[in-house]
Amino acid sequence: MVYELSHYIGGQRVEGTSGRYGDIYDPCAGQVQGRVPFAGADEVRTAIASAEKGQQEWAALNPQRRARILLKFVDLVNQHIDELAELLSREHGKTLADSKSDVQRGIEVVEFSAGAPHLLKGEFSDSVGQGIDVHSLRQPLGVVAGMTPFNFPAMIPLWQSGPALAAGNAFILKPSERDPSVPLRLAELLTEAGLPDGVFNVINGDKEAVDTLLEDPRVKAVGFVGSTPIAQYIYATAAAHGKRAQCFGGAKNHMVIMPDADLDMAADALIGAGYGSAGERCMAISVAVPVGEETAERLIGALQERIKDLRVGPSLDRDSDFGPVVTPMAKERIEGYIASGVEEGAALVTDGRGLKVEGYEDGFWVGPTLFDRVTPEMRIYRDEIFGPVLSVVRADDYEEALRLCSENQYGNGVAIFTRDGDSARDFASRVEVGMVGVNVPIPVPIAYYTFGGWKASGFGDLNQHGADAFRFYTKTKTVTSRWPSGIRQGAHFVMPEGS
Ligand code: NAD
After folding, report:
1. Residue 80 Cα, ligand 1 centroid: separation in angstroms?
2. DSSP symbol at 6
3. CA 150 – ligand 1 centroid, Å
4. Are residues 224 and 323 in the same domain?
5. Which of 230, 235, 287, 325 to probe ligand 1 with, by most ligand atoms within 8 A of CB?
6. Which atom of ligand 1 is nearest to the CA of 457?
7. 25 shares a domain with 150
8. pLDDT at 499 exceeding the cut of 60
9. Are the C-beta atoms of 273 and 284 separated by less than 8 Å?
10. Whose CA is nearest to atom 17 of ligand 1?
11. Ligand 1: which residue has its CA nearest to atom 36?
12. Regarding predicted confidence, which is higher, 495 or 187?
């Protein structure tokens, strides 16, 4: 039976009225399992009005009371984590363990946000002039919106909304249309935790819903995470409408393997970071850069050995290392890239095409794929494939490896594997990438640091979570005050000076 989802407005589920729907696939069975309504402009505007109303009440609560509601929500999410993980796996295709960490990494940011009222503090300067004091305030923006990708349907909505809510804003989420069940369930849990109605809304939809949010003057800021062309579009459109925007895009993350690296450690890391979640992670490693021919030969051997033991299987099967990709379109795109790699002359060491999983013959399976002797001109190197495809680009020396990482159009994550502190330090300092791992393949910063890539991976000057998020979701007001008992100087006709 095909299920039908709704929106979440004003503290309850609300059926779609536009008559437009999107399909939700079951990636293991390879068929449509549900449909999600695509909101029209009127429905989006109803959500904005509801958010505007709810925000007044929410912002009037002191930060500590808001934090208590968020902590109650964290408790509820923990109580429901198995249910949420299963819901997530059924629509996304990632394994249950991976879905749990999707939820877990999300609520870590809500926990951090609940504990961060100090980030809402302003500053105070006494006696900046005769009898004059200055202080600053951080005030919520009002109604803010977030648009999120399919690959982390819990984590990224929580990364955006945790700090936004803690700072006193109302939030409208436009989640990915491919796996929207978890965001809707999170909205229900927020209401159960005591969040006033209208403070968190979920609007399902496509470009029409996004454009309505971007154009409406009541929405003060937008956070976007997804592919680079859409990130650029959202950034430019939001700016044209006078909104704040932080927009995070695609990635092509490299891992440099130095000749002195622990090869087993590096190969294990590459297998997990390259093929985990079927490569559908913005911090997945998709390019391995061994330094020197001998390192390359040893690495390819170690990878081949591990690839043959990988188990690609149903998301709910606890023995699966990774599951199917999200849609038939994704499978077709990834297989197209594998064909183009072969055509362009890369050496296909392991071919993941044509994989069949017993009992799930129609699922969107792509097995682990390994290319050797990839060069920077090839499409499989230039483009983000977003599938379980790992390319090995051999570098003659460290400088060439560093240059490859820095010159790539993307700059999300990067890693170096080495035992040499000097190389690691030099790499971390010089590489033109936003998040760097030293013997850590997926360097996703913890909640109290910030997350954000450089170049085509991120647009806007503030990152997600950490202190940056509180700067993004608040506006600063600076108050200069003098009281009548201060020294009177009569009328002033020149600008006051600090001296
Ligand atoms: P996507 O760009 O297709 O979709 C992201 C969001 O944008 C969705 O909510 C979607 O409905 C909306 N959208 C799509 N087309 C639109 C349009 N024309 N106008 C307005 N809105 C539109 O991305 P995806 O396929 O869901 O996610 C995968 C991508 O996200 C990859 O490129 C991945 O690297 C990237 N990603 C980046 C980060 C990061 O932090 N940099 C994190 C996760 C994912």
Report:
1. 27
2. -
3. 7
4. no
5. 230
6. 41
7. yes
8. no
9. yes
10. 207
11. 226
12. 187
Read off the pLDDT of residues 262-315 as tens digits, 9 standing for 90 and up.
Answer: 999 999 999 999 999 999 999 999 999 999 999 999 999 999 999 999 999 999
Which range is least confidently modeled, 89-103, 116-130, 274-288? 116-130
| Same domain? 281 vs 311 | yes
| pLDDT for the residue numbered 486 | 58
CA–centroid distance, 377 to ligand 1, in Å, is: 25
In this structure, is residue 346 part of a structural domain? yes
What's the total number of domains in the chain?
2
Residue numbers of the domain that contains 189:
3-249+457-479
Distance linking the first and last C-alpha atoms of the chain: 75
C-alpha 492/C-alpha 84 separation (Å) is 64
pLDDT at 72 over 70: yes
Asked if pLDDT for residue 426 goes beyond 70, the answer is yes
pLDDT at 487: 64
With vertex at residue 173, the alpha carbon angle to CA 109 and CA 9, rounded to the nearest 5 degrees, is 120
The answer to whether position 445 is within a domain reads: no
pLDDT tens per residue, range 256-272: 999 999 999 999 999 99
Catalytic (active site) residue 405: no
Q: Are residues 13 and 145 in the same domain?
A: yes
73 and 94 share one domain: yes
Please state whether 91 falls in left (phi above 0), alpha (psi between -120 and 50) or beta: alpha
Lookup: tokens for 463: 């990152």
As a whole number, mean pLDDT of residues 83-88 equals 98
Atom of ligand 1 nearest to the CA of 251: 34
**In the predicted model, what is the mean pLDDT of residues 225-240?**
98
Same domain, 170 and 289: no
**Domain-embedded: residue 240:** yes
Q: What is the CATH number of the domain that holds 287?
A: 3.40.309.10
Sorting pLDDT into bands at 50, 70 and 90, what band is 83?
Answer: very high
Count other Cβ atoms within 10 Å, centred on residue 317: 15
Give the CA count within 13 Å in the CB-facing half-sphere of 200.
Answer: 27
Pairing of strands 31-37, 143-147: unpaired
Q: Examine the domain organization and report whether 12 and 129 are in the same domain.
A: yes
- CA-closest candidate to residue 73, choices 154, 144, 151, 15: 154
Among 121-130, 168-177, 219-228, whose mean pLDDT is lowest?
Answer: 121-130
3-class secondary structure, 290: strand
Whether residue 281 lies inside any domain: the answer is yes
